[in-house]
Each structure stands twice: as C-alpha cells, then as structure tokens.
Design brief:
Distance between the termini of chain B: 12 Å
Number of strands of chain B: 18
Radius of gyration of chain B: 21 Å
Strand order of the largest sheet of chain A: 7-6-5-8-9
Strand content of chain A: 5-15%
CATH topology of the largest domain in chain B: TIM Barrel
Distance between the termini of chain A: 23 Å
Number of helices of chain A: 13
Number of helices of chain B: 12
CATH superfamily of the largest domain in chain A: Aspartate/ornithine carbamoyltransferase
Structural class of chain A: alpha/beta
CATH architecture of the largest domain in chain A: 3-Layer(aba) Sandwich
Order of helices and strands of chain A: HEHEHEHEHEHEEHEHHHEHHH
Largest sheet of chain B: 8 strands, mixed
CATH architecture of the largest domain in chain B: Alpha-Beta Barrel
Number of domains of chain A: 2
Shape of chain B: globular
Oligomer: heterodimer
Helix content of chain A: 25-40%
Number of strands of chain A: 9
Chain lengths: 320, 437
C-alpha cells in the first residue's frame, strides 16, 4: 500500500486505509500550531495556493485559508462573483489561466460533482477537493474521523450513524468511505426519499426511524437539511421533518447512555438538530471546526511533498 | 473516398467473389452480384463483367443489402458548425450506411413540408448516403399541437418524432398514433417520463450514487414504453420506440408484440456494448440519453436483438462541437457520434464474440429498417434497387476520431481496436464510398 497521497486529494473513496491514517497522524503535530501565540510555521514558505470557491462557503474557505497561512504559503482567493467565471469563462479556461501563472496548488469548491477531477486531469498543480456537488468533501470527512478518533481513541468497530439528506450530501459520502475504511460500523438514517436508492450497496445499515438509529449509535453525524428540498418535493415540510427525524433531547435521553453529537454546519437549529442538543455536553461540533484546520494543514503539507516523519520538525525548522 | 452521385445513369458494377448475405431471401452463398441501371441485375457464380463495368474485388468480404440507420442527428439546419447534411451523409457512407433517417430536432425544427424539402435537397447535393427526413410530431417539438404529417409525408418524410423531447402528453401521443395511420408512417418516441428523468445525467444506481451525479432510473423509460404500447393497442397505430436501454423495456416490448400490438424498437451499438461503469472518472464521452445502464440490461438488450424483440440497430449519431464535452459532467451535452463505428463495434463485440450471427446482424441493420419504415432496399433480389454494403468482417483498424468524416469527434470508442469495416457503399448503383484495403 502506498504511503504517499499522490498528486491530488479528490475524495476518500480512492484512498487506502494507510493513506487516511497517515493524514490523521500527520494532523496530530499540527494541532499544536494553532494553540501557539504566534500561529505560523515555515513548512510551505514560497508556495502559492489558489482557493477557488465557486460556491458559497464560510467555514471551509476560512479553515483552508488559516491552514495555508499558518504554514506560510502565499494564497489568493477567487470566488465566482467578481471573477471571469461570472463573465462566462469555462472551468477548463480558468484552470489553464491559473496554471499559466505558475501556481503550486488549487483548492476547489464547486457545485458540479466531478469538478475537482476535471481540474486535476488538466493541470499539473496539486488539486484539493473542498467539496464538489453531491460527490465528496474529503477534508470534512477527515476532520470528522479525527474528531471521532480523539474521542473514542480508535475508530475500529465504533458505531456511527449519518442522519438526514444523504442523497444530496457530499459530507455523507466522504464519511461513509472514511469510516468504513477505518473499520467503523456505519449506518444512515433519514426519509427514504433522501437516501440513494442503492445506499445498502455502500455497506451501511439503513434505519428508517431515528429512534432506532439513536438506540444503535455511539455517535450521530447530523447533516444539514437544505431548505430547497421541500420545493424539490422530497419532504413535505421542515416542521414535520423535525418532528419525525429531528435529533432532540427527549430522543437522546431515551437511549440511556451518552451519544456523541456531530454536525458539519451550518446548522438549522430546530430542524435537523435541537439547540439544546447542539449546545449540549456531548456535542463536539466546535471540536470538528478546530480539527478542520489541523487536518487541512496535514493535507497541504503531505501533498506538497512533506515527509510525514518530519511533520513535527517542520513546524519549527525550514526543512520540508 | 466519396464520389459525386449525379443524375446520370451509373456504370455497371460487378461485385466479384464475395459472400452474398441476403437474409430477406435466406441467401448465404459465395458469388458475384451485377448492378445495372441502379438495380440488381444478376447474381451467380463467375458472372462475366460487361464492357466498361467497374469491378470490385470482394474476396473475403460480405455483400449485403445496404444498411439503413433509422436514427441520426445531422444538425442542419441550425448547427452547421457541428455537422451538416453533407458531412453526415458522407460519414454514413464511410460507415457502410446507404441511407439514414434524420431526426427533426434541428434549428428551426423540421415540422413542415418546406423544412422536409430542404433536407432532401441538401442530401441530393451531397450525393452520398440517402437521407430520409423524419418530421416532428408537434409544432416546434413543443408537445402541444400536431404538425402537418400529411404535408410532410408528401414532401418526403418517412416517420414522425419529437426525438430528444419525449412526448409527455398521453393525449398527444394517442392522437399522433391515430392520425399517422392515414399516411402509413410510424410514430417514434424517445421514451422518457420527464419528471422522473429531470436533471439526471446518468443511470440511477450504485455508480451514480458514488459519483454524486443525479440519476435517471430505468423506470423513467419503462413507464413510457408501457404507456406507448398501451396507446398503440388502443389506437391500432404503429409505435416505434427509439434507443431502448433497459431490461424492463425489452420485457414490455416482448409482451406487447405477444399481444399483437404494432410496436417496433431499436437499440444503439453503445447500449449493447457499454455500461454505466464507463462514466467512472466523470468521462463525458459516456454521457448519453438514455444513459448507459447495467450489465444486466446489456444482456437483456442483446437477447432482445437476437430474438427479434428489438427489430433494429440504430446509431443515434449525435455530433457535438469538439470542446462541448470538455466540461463538468452535469453540464456536458448528451450523445456520441456513431455512424463510422457502428459496424465495427457490432462485429467486434457481438458477432466475433458469438452473441449474434452475421445474417441476424445484417437483418437488424438493413432488412428490418427497410421493412418497418417502408423504405427502398433491404434485399438484393433481382430488380431491387442497387443499395449495397460491402464489408470485410476481419479487417482490423483502430478508431482515430481525428480521421472521422463526420465533424463530430465525441466517441467513447477512441483508440479501440475493432475488427470489421465497410469497404464499399453503393447507392442506386453508384459507388459512393470505397476503402482502399
């Protein structure tokens, strides 16, 4: 099994268990950087990174930017509004123009599934998928894995249930691949109209009722319910969604044991998750955000050719 | 190489020493065929060549009735940058087709007699494969008001279809099937329930779930196949189902034929040879409508072609500009070119692998299209029009899209090594294409 990551990070599906473990292990020493007074190490000094965000994002974009800056890379942010994309430039032309400016890496968020693949096939720079359509969001999957591993010590045989709109969720797909590769037991729960028809072929358990899912799970990863899904005719109303599938204090109490609560954000309080659950003692939602920076630093470092065993040293020295 | 087909009488052509395959008459023997004055004059062993006759050495080759593609998109009028009637008709000839039927989803839509006449005139000027226009079912393919079938047929249309757009209204489909009966033409439907297929870009299944691409379920096709068969039963009309892609469709057609309903169907070479797996890596050359399905569907389609449930193999030749597919999967256009690869793909993947025998392939490419669309050809009987396809079933070649006669380059078969290729295409006794072996 290959220990390096290769040129790009496009998803967790193509990664081996060893590669995922490598990223998680490399993230450990980088966690400490963000706790320092001066949050900067020279590991990526002289590298140029373009953050290409064609879709709205707060958390992921800022997290990548912090990760890049704390590694001393030079970064440029490009959005779809106010750029040539708005003037009708195609993705392939955008890619060629960026490449012509001799950059090192591209972080891309795009509404089309496969957009990161498309870019990676056409440019020599490293490409990191920051979310493509309803396909994958690998760094979110990785930070979820790291958060679960922090809490449980290991992912082996841990029971994790992904709750909500799995059909349209790139977070769900990256979580399913990452968790199953790391040996966890994975379930999904949601209205059948928001689960892919062939979801069972992913090797996951399917719960039709949230009560059953809570009874089974040690951790719930609760997906954001996009408000457009009502117009699409997938569910009748947010109110009913909350009543039937919402993760509430009462439902959790009935389990009679603690269940770890995760959410990739942004949350719809009172829809998929109640406020007292989101803010409760078993919620690790903000730990996920903190871990996001460390995981992204690890991915950037490894794709730039950094040697994992030197990650600790890289924080202080200029050697990469 | 193509040649001008002018109004003048053709030279005599002697096809010497080939395997004559004429399933319409049950003929399969080695011999010569003489073409004179645009008709088949004689068939036999060691025919002597008349003075001034063009002699084609057919040793090792098959002499068959001319292939007819009942489903292609020639893009003219409207998108002459992508394909023209001339380039499409020449590409057809290079692929061994003596005639093609042109779908009406042009710009403007071919929904009146003047538009039908324009296509025939352009085809005449091209002097390559014959082009039979298909008229629209509804004005502008908007699915509201019937187009003038009678005038279009009078001008030369051979069928009607809103292809590319399914006929959503069951009432409109019913009326079309009734009205078309006065003109003896089939009504062709692209079977797709629009609300089930909406926004989909590939087959709905495990691969689409993994890739995060919105899927089109098999049932989107099957619901409409069932509806169309029932409406054909209701009206007594002839419904022809375009590019079938699923096992369920094959089973429904088998059921319909068993009831005695006048239903015919076609399948493309790509739905007989490729599956949804070709979409891996977001390869836009594997994006078509209907989408590539599963291995199980492919098996059922092959069985359907073998037992005649599916009557015709048609290309759904759909050229696009060279960079139109160079984009995100969801945004790329549907469709691939097929005229120049159809025969090679069918021989390589179906005949040489033992799935289909040669007489059946020739029937599905030549005899059945002529029979169900009431077109000239489909047989090499004495006196039949001299539409002939000569192909070498063993000739090996590699697909190089840059050498296509079609303007389109969008094919999933690029760099495929194929065994079998047309070596001469003859229309009305004129040799319009010859491959130098």
């Amino acid at each position: 099994m290959t220990k390096t990551l290769g040129k790009d990070l496009l998803g967790l599906e193509p990664l081996s268990t060893e590669q995922i473990r490598l990223i998680l292990d490399t993230a450990e020493p980088f966690k400490e950087v963000s706790e320092r007074q001066i949050k900067k190490v020279p590991a990526l000094r002289g590298m140029t990174i373009v953050n290409l965000f064609f879709e709205a994002s707060t958390r992921t974009r800022i997290s990548f930017e912090f990760a890049e800056k704390r590694l001393s890379a030079d970064t440029v942010n490009v959005g779809s509004s106010g750029s040539s994309v708005q003037k009708g430039e195609t993705l392939v032309d955008t890619a060629r123009n960026l490449e012509a400016m001799r950059i090192n890496m591209v972080v891309i968020r795009h509404s089309a599934s496969g957009a990161a693949h498309f870019l990676a096939d056409r440019i020599q720079s490293n490409v990191i998928n920051a979310g493509d359509g309803t396909h994958e969001h690998p760094t979110q999957g990785l930070l979820d894995l790291l958060t679960l591993r922090d809490h449980f010590g290991t992912l082996e045989r841990r029971r994790v249930c992904i709750v909500g709109d799995v059909l349209h969720s790139r977070v769900a797909r990256s979580n399913i691949w990452g968790l199953t590769k790391m040996g966890a037991e994975v379930a999904v729960c949601g209205p059948r109209s928001l689960l892919p028809k062939d979801i069972a072929e992913f090797g996951v358990i399917v719960f039709k009722r949230i009560e059953e899912a809570i009874e089974w799970a040690e951790a719930l990863n609760i997906l954001r319910l996009q408000l457009e899904r009502m117009q699409g005719g997938y569910i009748p109303s947010l109110r009913e969604y909350n009543r039937v599938f919402g993760v509430t204090r009462e439902r959790l109490d009935r389990a009679g044991r603690p269940v770890l609560i995760m959410h990739p954000g942004p949350m719809n309080r009172g829809v998929e998750i109640d406020s007292d659950v989101a803010d409760g003692e078993h919620s690790v939602i903000l730990d996920q955000v903190t871990n996001g920076v460390a995981v992204r630093m690890a991915v950037l470092y490894l794709l730039a050719g950094g040697r994992p065993e030197l990650a600790d040293a890289a924080k202080g020295a200029s050697e990469r | 190489m193509t040649r001008e087909r002018t109004g003048s009488a053709p030279r005599d052509v002697l096809l010497r020493g080939g395997r004559i395959l004429d399933p319409a008459r049950g003929v399969d023997e080695v011999g010569d065929v003489l073409l004179r004055g645009g008709s088949v004059e004689a068939q036999g062993r060691s025919l002597s060549a008349p003075d001034d006759a063009e002699v084609l050495d057919c040793a090792g080759a098959i002499i068959a009735p001319g292939f007819i593609d009942v489903h292609c998109h020639l893009r003219e009028p409207g998108r002459e940058d992508v394909e023209t009637i001339a380039t499409g008709a020449r590409a057809a000839a290079a692929g061994g087709f003596t005639a093609v039927c042109a779908m009406p989803n042009t710009e403007p839509v071919t929904d009146n007699q003047a538009a039908v006449g324009f296509i025939l005139r352009q085809a005449m000027r091209a002097g390559a494969a014959r082009v039979y226009p298909i008229g629209a079912i509804s004005l502008g393919q908007r699915g509201e008001q019937l187009a003038e079938f009678g005038e279009m047929v009078g001008a030369g249309a051979v069928a009607v279809s809103d292809d590319g757009k399914p006929v959503a209204s069951a009432h409109l489909m019913r009326t079309a099937l009734e009205y078309a009966q006065s003109f003896g033409i089939p009504v062709i439907d692209h079977c797709e329930e629009p609300t089930l297929a909406s926004g989909g870009a590939m087959n709905e299944g495990i691969v689409s779930a993994r890739l995060g691409v919105k899927g089109i379920p098999a049932e989107a096709e099957e619901v409409m196949v069932a509806r169309n068969i029932l409406l054909a039963r209701l009206t007594g009309g002839h419904v022809h189902l375009a590019h079938m892609s699923t096992r369920g469709s094959v089973e429904l057609i088998r059921w319909g034929k068993g009831l005695g309903v006048t239903v015919t169907a076609e399948v493309t070479p790509h739905h007989l040879t490729l599956t949804e797996n070709a979409c891996e890596g977001y390869d836009t050359h594997a994006k078509m409508n209907p989408p590539l399905r599963t291995a199980d569907d492919l098996d059922a389609l092959r069985e359907g072609v073998r037992d005649g449930t599916i009557d015709v193999i048609a290309t759904d030749h759909a050229p696009h500009h060279y960079d139109a597919k160079e984009r995100e999967f969801a945004d790329a256009p549907f469709g691939i070119v097929g005229l120049e690869t159809a025969l090679g793909v069918m021989l390589t993947d179906l005949v040489h692998t033992g799935v289909l025998d040669l007489p059946t392939l020739v029937d599905r490419l030549a005899c059945a299209p002529a029979r169900i669309f009431h077109l000239a050809g489909g047989s090499l009987a004495r006196g039949a029009p001299a539409h002939v396809t000569v192909f070498d079933p063993e000739l090996e070649w590699s697909v190089d899209p840059s050498t296509f006669v079609s303007k389109g380059r969008n094919t999933p078969y690029a760099d495929r090594l194929l065994r079998g290729r047309a070596i001469a295409t003859i229309v009305d006794g004129h040799v319009i294409y010859r491959l130098t072996r």
